[in-house]
C-alpha cells in the first residue's frame, strides 16, 4: 500500500472515530459540542465510564493524527522542506493540545469516583472542579483547532504547488483551513461570528476539504507518487 493511500485511509478512520465518539460516547459530556459549562459539568459528574472511554478514544485519535501528519510531511517535503517541517511541527503541537482533553476527562472521572474527593469536597465544589476541567478542555481544543488548521492550510498549499492532487481540492483546502483558523480567532473579538450558523458553515467547509483529500488519497494516491510505505 502506498504512503498516500495510508494517509488517506488513516484520515478517514480519524474522521469516523471523531463522529462515533461524539455520537456514542461524548454526548452531554463534551463542552466542545455544546459550550454549556454548567450542564456539561453536571453531566460529567454522572458519567465516569464514558469519560474514561472518551479519554482512551482521544489517545487513539492522537495516534491516527500522528500517522496522518507524518505521512503528509513525507509526501510533501520534497516540494518545500521548510514549510512541510513547520506544518508537521504545528500539527503535532495542535494534536498534543487536543490530547489534553483526555487528561481533563480522566481528571473528572477521578473526581467522580475517588473516595478522597467525596471526603474533602461537597457537591458544589465537585461541580466547580468539573466545570474548570470542562473549561480547560474547551480552551485547549480551540487553541489546537487554530494551530492545526494553520498547519493543514500549509499542507494544502504544498499540494497545490506540487499538483500532486487536483488543484480544486487543494485550493479549497487552503481556503477552508485558513477560514476556520481566522474565524475562530476573530470571534473572540467579534461575538457575532460565534453564532451557530456561522460555526456550522465554516466547519462544514473544512469537513468537505478533509473528506475530499482523504478520499482522493485513499482511492487514487497522488500523481506520480512512487514512494511505498
UniProtKB/TrEMBL annotation:
Signal peptide: none
Pfam annotation, one family: DUF4386
Residue stretches spanning the membrane: 12-35, 55-75, 82-105, 141-160, 167-186, 198-219
Lineage top rank: taxon: Bacteria
InterPro entries named among the record's database cross-references: DUF4386 (IPR025495)
Keyword annotations from UniProtKB, A to Z: Membrane, Transmembrane, Transmembrane helix
Protein name as annotated: DUF4386 domain-containing protein
Organism this protein belongs to: Congregibacter litoralis KT71
UniProt lineage: Bacteria, Pseudomonadati, Pseudomonadota, Gammaproteobacteria, Cellvibrionales
